[in-house]
Every structure is written in C-alpha cells, then in structure tokens.
Amino acid sequence: MNSDILFQIAAVGIIVAVLNQLLAKTDHGEHALMVTIAGLVMVMIMIIGEVGRLFDTIRLTFRI
Question: DSSP secondary structure string, 12-36?
Fold first, then answer.
C-alpha cells in the first residue's frame, strides 16, 4: 500500500472540516451536514477499493 491514499484521505478530511466550519458559521447547518456526509462517502469509496485490492492480494498469495 502506498502512502498516496493516506494523503488523499487527509486532504478530503481537511477540506470537509474547513467547509463544515464555514457553512456552520453562516447558518447553513443543513449544507454543512451534507458536505460532511459527502466527504464520508468519498473516503468510504476510496477505502472499499483498497480493501478489494487487499482481498485480491490475499487470494493470490494463498492461491484460494
């Protein structure tokens, strides 16, 4: 696993945190929640792809 995925997840987290704070301060709480949920979904999609690659590697290693 390369460290690029960690930097991508961190970047998404920072962007979501900044947008969440900006929207919360301007009384757009619903939009802040939607940005947070969208960020969570993006990170979950990235993690699911990595877990799929992990299972493929395990399958090839143990010839299952």
Answer: HHHHHHHHHHHHHHTT-HHHHHHHH
Q: Rounded to an integer, what distance in angstroms lies between the CA atom of residue 29 and that of residue 20?
A: 8
* Three-class DSSP category at 60: helix
pLDDT at residue 1 greater than cutoff 60: no
Contact 43, 2 (CB under 8 A): no
Token pair for 7? 């930097």
Amino acid at 56: D
User: What angle in degrees, to the nearest 10, is found between the helix axes of 4-25 and 29-62?
Assistant: 170
pLDDT tens, residue by residue, 7-36: 999 999 999 999 999 999 999 999 999 999
